[in-house]
Design goal:
heterodimer, A: 198 residues, alpha+beta, four-stranded antiparallel sheet, 2 helices, 28% strand, B: 127 residues, 46% helix, rod-shaped
């Protein structure tokens, strides 16, 4: 004798209706959860990146060193920290750093060629190899000030014309475009004591 | 031959297994988001602490031992939650001209502390 008893159609329909209602209720909440998570991960990524950029700037500038006439094969670099006057204002900073153990020329500038300007770094190694990359997007400009302790008193200058001497510290302030804000690690000033200043 | 569907016990056990697996997956999912949130909240604190330590590094011995209020504590808003930092400086015991710098950043969900040392030979006014 064989008794086969599966679900009746009515049972199946009721079960599907109940399951469907539960899925619909949970689905909306779940998709909201996914959206929030995606936004959170993206935001965390931006903030962590900007913290890395901040650390990179600190590492480079703290290991800046005074220029020499020969420049160890670095073409055209006599100065270490140079802020040219003119239209660009403060938005350019050039120096030689030993952050990676070998001399590298770093040129920080604000690239205004794209839709939105960005903080750009150009690294030139002793053999002339150059790498250029965006450090931080949406940077409208930056200001640098330089501390000097000549004559025993600390003073702050808006420019640093000397290549042979180093300031005791550099403070960088990045500016955002109007109506926008930079990620918090880049919003606050970046104070960098120089390791090799005299 | 007698064929029946699942017994209630079988159905319950299978649901329990599926439920446990689903719960584990959901938990891993949430853990990743929580870790990202913690990192996101800690990043401004890390930046703030290193900034305050860098400012302390610029001071001479005299100023280090009598920190002005502006270098002693402060807070920053505008990042969805307040971050408060406080700094303190002490002499390193049994060491001449060596100072302990300590900066603590607090926010509602955590604390970040950064310490450093500064060497200020007597007679040198500023670095």
């Amino acid at each position: 004798m064989s008794i086969r008893r599966g679900l009746t159609l009515l049972e199946l329909v009721v079960a599907l209706a109940v399951g469907g209602a539960a899925l619909a209720a949970g689905g909306a909440a779940f998709s909201a959860l996914i959206d929030r998570r995606t936004a959170l991960l993206a935001d965390a990524d931006v903030v962590e990146r900007s913290l890395t950029v901040r650390r990179m700037l600190v590492a480079w500038i703290s290991e800046a060193r005074a220029g020499t006439a020969s420049g160890e094969g670095l073409v055209g670099v006599r100065g270490t920290l140079r802020v040219p006057s003119g239209e660009l204002g403060d938005d350019l900073l050039e120096f030689v750093t030993m952050a990676d153990g070998v001399p590298q020329r770093v040129r920080l500038s604000v690239d205004r060629t794209g839709m939105r300007s960005s903080l750009t770094a150009e690294l030139t190694a002793a053999d002339g190899a150059t790498a250029r990359f965006v450090l931080a997007p949406d940077v409208a400009g930056f200001e640098a000030s330089f501390a000097t302790s000549a004559f025993g008193r600390q003073e702050w200058r808006r420019d640093w014309p000397s290549g042979a001497l180093l300031p005791t510290a550099v403070v960088l302030r990045l500016r955002a475009h109007d109506g926008t804000a930079l990620p918090s690690p880049l919003r606050m000033p970046i104070t960098i004591p120089l390791a090799n200043s005299q | 031959m007698r064929r029946t569907g699942f017994t209630l016990l079988e159905a319950t056990v299978s649901l329990a297994i599926v439920g446990t697996v689903a719960l584990g997956a959901l938990e891993a999912f949430g853990a990743e988001a929580r870790a990202a949130l913690r990192a996101r909240q800690a990043a401004p604190a890390v930046a703030m602490a290193s900034e305050q330590v860098a400012r302390l590094q610029l001071l001479d011995a005299h100023t280090l031992l009598s920190l002005p209020d502006s270098l002693r504590h402060g807070r920053a808003e505008g990042d969805a939650q307040p971050y408060e930092w406080s700094a303190s400086v002490g002499r390193v015991t049994d060491e001449l001209d060596l100072y302990d710098l300590r900066v603590e950043v607090r926010w509602p969900a955590g604390v970040y502390e950064l310490t450093a040392r500064a060497y200020r030979p007597a007679g040198e006014r500023a670095r």
